[in-house]
């Protein structure tokens, strides 16, 4: 038995999210179906670093699984990619020790969120960004980002739909935003993120960028530990799980 | 009666091309359906600068149509976009003189073609580029591009499926190629292009970039006036109708 770790990428547009569910196409099911074929009908369960919602993309999701097939490490990526549909792919596959765990061993996760700041929608960006017309004050967003960094109880930035049992204290190592041509790029690195946390952070930061709130409101929103104090939840299609470090 | 000129953009992924056909969703039909609604059930025919094939995109296709609705110029774009599906949009709408013709008056067309030069496919680029692994000699492609410029009989670069009645002499004002990160960007400007011409040009230039042919072969391929002498037809998803000048 050998444990494999894979870095995978997917276009979330036509998926009902990462995790298997009764109805709807999922990333987990597509990959497990391929692994079942490779293992001659034996079901192989995969474990990911975490779920992503319907419409959310991944550049660097990480999964692991165990296999009893004696395949050279270099062949795994090609074997899986040959059978996967075109909107999901393995970018890297490597053998790891039996105690590696893609969820429990996460040290840092990075998410990016893309906001297209143009007057009109763009047919080519519609699945990969959130379009916003009007002036956005990037400097104000950057000031707010600094106030989000650090160890906080992020209850105000967690969807009420969470099924989390533990606390909502997380550490954001980096929250940043820059503009490249018409695109605002948000970057969040942390030791973990709550349900919808990045999308609520972006929704709140956008309100600051549009002058509806001030960057100075951030500490109070955090302290409130109340979802109602933060801004709206940004839509899924602008969000990318960018990287997971162990 | 007023003639309107519109610059339109579309993601060609889910279209069976621009032109209306018995089966399959087309850009022309989507726009005419919207105009019919705006004109209370009266059918409005639109005329484009030219067709694009299934899977081919447009950043700056141009159409015209005639309307008896007295709408201010500034409202047309919003009125049409409000009813269009999300993969096609009007970028600009303006009133023009009655003798403007989007096809007959074209002075210059620009097409771009994107080749992703990476070892692996990329789920996010799969509908918008042609992925090619291995080394590509951009300098050799640039040399070949220079030899394509000018007024030539481009029969060797025209699909046998063309229904063209006239001659195949066209003028290429600019043929160029540059690499930006992993993406090769081909740019072609000319007074007109034959059926599949840009895709056959790219297919041939790629063979030169990969060392299967020499840039010096271009004059001979042109002189042959024989489709069999040129390279393969590049796939549609890398092609964008970029701009039309009048």
UniProtKB/TrEMBL annotation, chains A, B:
EC number from the UniProt entry: 5.4.99.12
Family matches, as InterPro entries: PsdUridine_synth_cat_dom_sf (IPR020103), PsdUridine_synth_TruA (IPR001406), PsdUridine_synth_TruA_a/b_dom (IPR020097), PsdUridine_synth_TruA_C (IPR020095), TruA/RsuA/RluB/E/F_N (IPR020094)
Domain Pseudouridine synthase I TruA alpha/beta residues, every copy: 8-105, 144-246
Enzyme class: isomerase
Catalytic activity: uridine(38/39/40) in tRNA = pseudouridine(38/39/40) in tRNA
Matches recorded under SUPFAM superfamilies: Pseudouridine synthase (SSF55120)
GO BP of this protein: tRNA pseudouridine synthesis
Active site annotation, chain numbering: 53 (nucleophile)
GO molecular function, one term: tRNA pseudouridine(38-40) synthase activity
Residue numbers binding substrate: 111
Keyword Isomerase assigned: yes
UniProt keyword terms in alphabetical order: Isomerase, tRNA processing
Cytoplasm as UniProt keyword: no
Function summary: Formation of pseudouridine at positions 38, 39 and 40 in the anticodon stem and loop of transfer RNAs.
Subunit structure: Homodimer.
Similarity comment: family membership: Belongs to the tRNA pseudouridine synthase TruA family.
Protein name, as recorded: tRNA pseudouridine synthase A
Organism ancestry: Bacteria, Bacillati, Bacillota, Bacilli, Bacillales
Gene name as annotated: truA
């Amino acid at each position: 038995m050998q444990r494999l770790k894979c870095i995978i990428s997917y276009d979330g547009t036509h998926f009902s999210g990462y995790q298997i569910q009764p109805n709807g196409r999922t990333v987990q099911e597509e990959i497990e179906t391929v692994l079942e074929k490779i293992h001659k009908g034996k079901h192989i369960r995969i474990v990911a670093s975490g779920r992503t919602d319907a419409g959310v993309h991944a550049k660097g999701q990480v999964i692991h699984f165990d296999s009893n097939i004696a395949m050279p490490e270099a062949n795994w990526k090609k074997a899986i990619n040959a059978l996967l549909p075109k909107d999901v792919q393995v970018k890297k596959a490597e053998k790891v020790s039996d105690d590696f765990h893609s969820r429990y061993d996460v040290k840092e996760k990075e998410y990016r969120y893309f906001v297209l700041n143009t007057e009109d929608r763009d047919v080519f960006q519609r699945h990969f960004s959130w379009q916003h017309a009007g002036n956005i004050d990037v400097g104000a967003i950057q000031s707010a980002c600094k106030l989000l960094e650090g160890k906080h109880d992020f209850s105000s930035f967690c969807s009420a739909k969470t099924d989390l049992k533990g606390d909502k204290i997380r550490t954001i190592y980096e929250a940043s935003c820059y503009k490249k041509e018409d695109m605002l790029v948000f970057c969040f690195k942390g030791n973990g993120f709550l349900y919808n946390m990045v999308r609520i952070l972006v929704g709140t930061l956008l309100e600051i960028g549009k002058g509806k709130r001030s960057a100075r409101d951030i500490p109070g929103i955090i302290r409130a530990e109340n979802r109602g104090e933060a801004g709206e939840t940004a839509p899924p299609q602008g969000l990318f799980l960018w990287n997971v470090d162990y």
